[in-house]
Every structure is written in C-alpha cells, then in structure tokens.
Design goal:
- The chain has about 450 residues and is an alpha+beta fold.
- Helix content is about 35%, strand content about 25%.
- Strands 13-12-9-10-11-14-19-17 form an 8-stranded antiparallel sheet, sandwiched between helices.
- Strand 6 and strand 7 form a beta hairpin.
- Helix 4 packs antiparallel against helix 5 and helix 12 runs antiparallel to helix 13.
- The relative contact order is 0.12.
- It binds adenosine-5'-diphosphate.
- The site of adenosine-5'-diphosphate has 20 residues, from strand 6, strand 7, strand 8, strand 12 and strand 13.
Length: about 450
Amino acid sequence: MRTLFIANRGEVAVRIQRAARGLGLATVQACSEADVSAEYVRRADASVCIGPGPAAASYLDAGRVVLAALAAGADAVHPGYGFLSENAAFADKVERAGLVFVGPPASAIHTMGDKVRARTFMLAAGVPCLPGSDGALPEDPAACRGIAAQIGYPVIVKAAGGGGGRGMRVVTAEADLLPSIELTRAEAKAAFANSEVYLERYLTTPRHVEIQIVMDAYGNGVWLGERDCSIQRRHQKVIEEAPAPGVGRTMLAEVAGRCLEACQRMAYRGVGTFEFLYENGDMFFIEMNTRLQVEHPVTEAITGIDIVEAQLRIAAGESLWFRQDDVTFSGHAIECRINAEDGATGRPSPGRIERFRAPVMKGVRVDTHVGDGYVVPPFYDSMIAKLIVHGESRAAAVETMRAALADLHIDGISTNITLHRDLLADPGFCEGGTNIHYLETKLRKAAP
Ligand code: ADP
C-alpha cells in the first residue's frame, strides 16, 4: 500500500491524512466543488474534484469515487465515516477495481447493515439483545399482537434497513400497535427500499454505551474499552466519554468477548463499534457500526492506541501487533462535538468563519479542518471541530474541558459552544451516568 485515496471530507479527512503521513503513505484527497479550495485539500499530496457540492453528486457517488481513485493511481481507499463508509456495494466495487478497501469485507458490512440480520447474528454469538421478535414481523395482525404482548409494552417498531435515527416508532399500548407497524413499514419502504420491520422492547431511561474493537485479517482481535455517548440531541451524539462512568468492568469484558467472537464468525477485519443500550446494570446490543467513528479520539486518549493508524496497517495486511493484555486504560477522556448550528434550535448555520481560536493547553486535542476565513458549506454535516480532553480522573477531564471551552472562540457563525459550556457546568453531567434523554429534557425545561 503506497497511495491512499481519502473518500471523505472535513475533520475526518484531516485525521486520515495525518495517520497516512505518519506511515509514509502518499495521500490523494477527494473533494467536491464546495470543498475544492479548503486548506486541507491543498495539504494532501494530490486532490481530485469528484463532482458538485450536493453529496449525492460527489461523496455519495460510488462510481465516481472509484474512478477517481483509479485515475489518481491510488491503491487503497479510506471511506472515513458517513457517506459510503457502510455501503457494502461500495466496498465490493472498490475491491473489484483491485483497490484495498480500508474497512471490513463487504460481506460483514452487509450482515451488520441490516438490523434484523445483525440481531439474529449477535444472538447466535451470545451477545445480549433486548427481548424482541424472532426476525422480521409477519404480515398477520394477530401474530404481531401476540409477539408484542409477549415482549411486553412499551415496544419499539424498527425498520430492518433503518439508520441515522430514522425508521423507528415507540408503541406504548396495543391499540397503537398495528397502525404503527403499517406506518413504519411504509416509511421504511420509501426511505430504505426495504419494508421489513421488527419489534424490540423499548427501554425508557437507557444510557448509550459502545464497545470499540479492532481485528486483523487473520482473526486476531482485541477490544479497546467502551465509550459512553448518552448526551444526545435528536439521536445525534453531542458529548462522548471514555470510560463509561459506573459501568461494571466484568460485564463489559464479558460482552466484549462475545463481540469479538461475533467478529471472528463474520471474518471481520479492521475497526468496529458495537452499540448497546445500558439500563439497570444490563447491556443490550442495538447495532454495529462497521467503520471508524467520530468519537474514536476518546479511546485513543485513554489507550494511547492510534485507531486510524491501526486501520491502515491492518488494511495493508499486517497482523495485530498487540494483544489484549497489552491494552491498558489510563484516566478519563471527553469529547465535545463543535457544530455550526443555531444555539437555540440546533439547526445548521453555515457561513464564513471570521476567526477561529482553539485552545492550546496540556491534555487538549483539537481535530478540525476549519480556520480563519473558512466557509462552512451548506451541503454537509454541521460538525466543524472536535475538542478532546484527557485527565487523570473524570473530574480532572471535566475541569480541563471547561478551560478548553473557555479558550475556544469562533466568530462569524453560530455554534453550539455555549451549549457545551452549559453542559460542563451542569450538576447532572458533572456527576456522570445520565441517560439518553438527559440533554433534551434539560433543553425543554430551559425553553421559554
Ligand atoms: P440508528 O441506526 O438509526 O442510529 P439505532 O438502533 O442505533 O438506530 O437506535 C438509535 C437510537 O434510538 C438509540 O440510540 C436510542 O436512543 C433509540 N433506541 C433504539 N432502540 C431502542 C430501544 N429498544 N429502546 C429505547 N431506545 C431505543
């Protein structure tokens, strides 16, 4: 592997460039017309414009991406996160073109990309799942009522092909069950071209806890601890941390062992994350992300392992160079996602950044692609930077994050920095262990 094509944009493109450079790889940066003049595009060894601003015509166009990678003489493609990163057909196309896909085999993406298939697979590997339907729901209304009664209300109807927080509906009483199933089926058919839905028990106050794994192409895998990503707004993570406050280590290790077994069964390769809901001391699998995640730096901070470098070395065929016993966890890390968004509504607010001042202090890392004069395009995700801190304890990390946020200044556009400053002063957050509804409940209470 000598030349890496980066089929993504923004902060993750910068992150991948850094890891590639560290390994002596040349980089070819893909960009849309909206990103063509961004500084990080110029910093790559080469760049290729793959189409107009709207993602459907550029970053999401698998054919164009593969052609551009071939034309640029690359021998590997890193998909980053979002866009085509969890698209099995894309991974397949990349490999068929004779390029290395920096990620798992297309078959593993395919298995985990369908929630019904993933759930069945995980149950078979002994990973705890919520009580739910045995596969997809049948057409027969009486049978559906029977399944829901057996699970116990509240239940959640979920689309097999769902993602990004879409294709889900909570049902609290039997009278609403059949209409909810019908609605979710219709939505799923339109949005994901797959009308399969299934049922699962709905947890009312869970936390989001996820397990990071890394596996080479020869079946050697380790887990790199867990992350708590319960501070969310509209199903989007806002703050993440590692380790997860107060979650039992023995149970985590046991569940992680099962996850690694599942990885072996699907011949997984690369890094991946198993997402769980955690309530009353139990963990239940909800989905697997077969790619790098936005919040990977908190794991890097407490383990000292460079996750993107690991992705690239594994993709190049290296066998894992450390064992489970070599992985040690030190201190506590927190990440705040800095978004270009309206402070009150949380809606995206693209525009020109007049001034960007990031904190420079011990224990603070800033991952970003923006700077003075950068124009945030309207076409993509609103995240413009990640602030990551590492401290000896959670309390120390909270202190450092407060100081870092005080020294972060972005002028010209609206951001969610104030929201983060509020959260870092919030008694519930400071105590730790809040559930996934905490932030939205807090915002509702604060609304005039
Ligand atoms: P997506 O792929 O759309 O992100 P997930 O299965 O990861 O879907 O679920 C997204 C979010 O929906 C979860 O983080 C959680 O907030 C909520 N959710 C999903 N399943 C359940 C459940 N069984 N009980 C309670 N909340 C759930």
